[in-house]
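User: Hi! I have a protein structure encoded as tokens and I'd like to know what sequence might fold into it. I'm fairly new to this, so please keep things simple.
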């Protein structure tokens, strides 16, 4: 079996009397989508912040591509190869679609410019950014301000920004949020292809998308992983049905 690209072992995080993460272990293997699901208040956001480097765990370790990144902050983890998206759109609204992706390419190449105008003429930034936009059918929006495109297009732009970083793993936090059926279908197709570039740890409430995409699912309830397995194993687990899926599928 291939070594995990992302390996989380024994993560715990306490806030006063609340144990938000309770000895959580999971991994992400090459070429897969591993979905993390759970009811509101289960501790998903706290866990994701620890994986991304926005919070430091009280206990446990996080390895990315064999490297211990537990002590690294979010910026260092991004440079190490962890691409992160958020529930709320994080694109720069006043920049064009192309400029947003160019910033990601610039960060990957670690190039600096005193002014942005020279960067706009640098083919080393423009060409890979346009290539990434073409892959998600957003090239025709390249010159539009990011604030002027649709919600679904902004979500696709976020995925493009993540792709442009050429990461070792994707950490995606509710990419379907706020989307209608057509948008969710398009995003599902995009993510299905994206796993072949780097594996995806997916946090998502859209269970139709989760069941369509996930190779494995881990279920988090009250800070603990109560089940982990294939889609069929998780759907048929009585603990999962009682704690989470029961309301939706009973």
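Assistant: Happy to help. Inverse folding works backwards from shape to sequence: for each of the 250 positions I chose a residue that suits the local structure. Here it is:
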């Amino acid at each position: 079996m291939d070594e995990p690209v992302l390996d989380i072992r024994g993560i715990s995080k306490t806030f006063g009397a609340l144990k938000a993460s309770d000895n959580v272990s999971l991994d992400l293997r090459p070429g897969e989508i591993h979905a993390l699901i759970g009811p509101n208040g289960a501790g998903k956001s706290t866990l994701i912040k620890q994986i991304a480097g926005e919070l430091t765990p009280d206990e446990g370790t996080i390895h990315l591509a064999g490297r211990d990144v537990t002590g690294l902050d979010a910026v260092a983890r991004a440079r190490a190869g962890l691409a992160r998206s958020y529930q709320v759109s994080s694109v720069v609204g006043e920049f064009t679609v192309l400029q947003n992706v160019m910033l990601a390419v610039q960060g990957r190449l670690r190039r600096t410019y005193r002014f942005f105008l020279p960067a706009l003429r640098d083919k080393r930034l423009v060409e890979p950014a346009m290539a990434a936009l073409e892959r998600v059918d957003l090239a025709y929006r390249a010159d539009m301000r990011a604030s002027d495109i649709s919600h679904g297009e902004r979500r696709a732009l976020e995925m493009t920004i993540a792709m442009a970083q050429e990461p070792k793993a994707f950490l995606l936090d509710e990419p379907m949020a706020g989307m209608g059926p057509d948008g969710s279908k398009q995003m599902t197709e995009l993510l299905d292809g994206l796993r072949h570039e780097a594996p995806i740890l997916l946090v998502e409430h859209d269970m139709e998308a989760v069941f369509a995409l996930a190779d494995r699912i881990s279920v988090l309830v009250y800070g603990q992983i109560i089940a982990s397995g294939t889609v069929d194993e998780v759907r048929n687990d009585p603990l999962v049905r009682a704690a989470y899926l029961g309301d939706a599928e009973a």
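A useful reference point when you look it over: DSSP finds ten helices and ten strands in the chain. Feel free to ask if any position seems puzzling.
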